[in-house]
Amino acid sequence: MLEICESYNLVFFEHLDLFRKALDGQDLAPDEEIKVRLVLRNSAGTFLALHELALFLPRESVRREMISFCGSLFQKEFDLKRISVLLTSVFNAFEYSLDDVMKTLSIDVFRNKIPNPNDLPFGHVMELAWVDRDNPLSWAILAHEFGHYIDETAGLSKRIANDYVNRTFKSSATASIQHFFERFCGEIVADLTAHYLLGPYSIAPVISMSLLAGLPMDRPILFDGYHPVPATRVQLLELAGNGATSMNPIQPLIAALTTEEELKEANLTPQERKQRSDIDAYIKVFFADVQPSILAELQSRGFLRFTEHNFERAADLEGQLRKGLPIGASRIVSNDELRSTFLEVDGNTTEPEIRAKYMRLQELPVNPGEVLAAGWSHKVAQMPEVIRKSFSSNSKTELFNEMKEFVEGVDSRLLKSLDVIAILERIHDSTGR
């Protein structure tokens, strides 16, 4: 595997002039553009294959910071006795009920056993690609998977789909139609749960994964029967947000995905393009119909919603992250307020008054969603310059050093930030604001 990775390092280095030309905004000749796209496509395909082969390597456990992140974000709904987090060799993320899996297995271990395995609660599992074990920015996808868990335990999409089908299809409703809308609604519940908890940045890992997984393909990602295509999912969440929590900070990611998908749409037949357009239009109608019921359920469970306030504070935290600082805590008052407070101290100030002023220095844990929002904003803003510096190297061995140092540095600061949140929550017996 390492030899294959080394060989691709050489391939990138051999085409260095073309990548520099593209990064400088110069137009590539048709044959040059083909070369660049082939290098990217083949390297992406190789990465996906290697990730699958990692199944045969010793597996690490999830990080403690990931468990802390889930506990802080999902609060009392996150119970490790009922839901586990595992790593998978598949470059994707999943959620499933072990009850369903175990009870559908026809194996000897389930025959004539005491206690009866069918009476045991096996719980649920969330799985994350093992390559993202140390990458907190990817953990936003766990909010989507947790949405599936909430949906399944509450029977939410089943209830909503049943109501929609009965209203829409009336006497022509069938079990297969009900099942289709139930699975389809489940994906909307999951996306809205993630957006409710993390704001617009919740979709960022999906965009990144779709770009990488889609690179080796000649055709755009198509509707699979229940997952709206990534570009449509972005549009739905734009409808769910507002101007104060817009998708603007991750617009470069969205633009890259849109451009890639539009180029590949040219390979579809006119009938396929029309079908794609019709499905997207219907999805938006269905989304508008079911969104209020889903949001009402999330609100009733007491989850902290990612609001304009969180969005603004994430922007401030991004400034600290840029300076190389962890961002898991913030003061309850601004620096200007603190300065004004301490300037009031004089010889007549009593000890209790001084102590009260001193306590205003106290820092509280931030919302974990703000940490991820600041991280994504920082990554999207800095990555173009990081890539330019990487391709300015004249040494094959140093080609991706700049990118490696940037990614590892950001990951390290975010992991420390999530650790700080967990520690402060225990000290103050409260969740991030």
Tell me about this structure:
The chain has 433 residues and is mainly alpha-helical. It is 61% helix and 5% strand. It has three domains: 2-56, no CATH class; 64-300, no CATH class; 308-428, no CATH class. The chain is built from 17 helices and five strands. The chain has a three-stranded mixed beta sheet. A two-stranded antiparallel ribbon has the order 4-5. Helix 7 (156-169) crosses helix 12. The mean pLDDT is 85.
SSE arrangement:
Elements: H1 2-14, H2 16-23, H3 30-53, H4 64-74, E1 83-88, E2 93-97, H5 98-103, E3 124-129, H6 141-154, H7 156-169, H8 175-198, H9 204-214, H10 230-240, H11 251-265, H12 270-300, H13 308-322, E4 329-331, H14 335-343, H15 351-358, E5 363-365, H16 368-390, H17 401-428
Parallel strand pairs: 1-3
Antiparallel strand pairs: 2-3, 4-5
Summarize the structure.
The chain has 433 residues and is mainly alpha-helical. It is 61% helix and 5% strand. The strands form two sheets. Strands 1-3-2 form a three-stranded mixed sheet.
Keywords for this entry:
single chain, about 425 residues, mainly alpha, 3 domains, three-stranded mixed sheet, two-stranded antiparallel ribbon, 17 helices
**% residues in beta strands:** 5-15%
Describe the main β-sheet briefly. 3 strands, mixed
Averaging pLDDT over every residue, what do you get?
A: 85
DSSP, total strands: 5
| Overall 3D shape | globular
- Poorly predicted regions are none
Strand order, main sheet: write it out: 1-3-2
Q: Into how many domains do the coordinates divide?
A: 3
Measured between the Cα atoms of the first and last residue, the distance is 44 Å
Oligomeric state of shown chains:
single chain
Radius of gyration (CA) equals 24 Å
Broad structural category: mainly alpha
Residue share in helix: 55-70%
Distinct helical segment count? 17
**SSE topology string:** HHHHEEHEHHHHHHHHEHHEHH
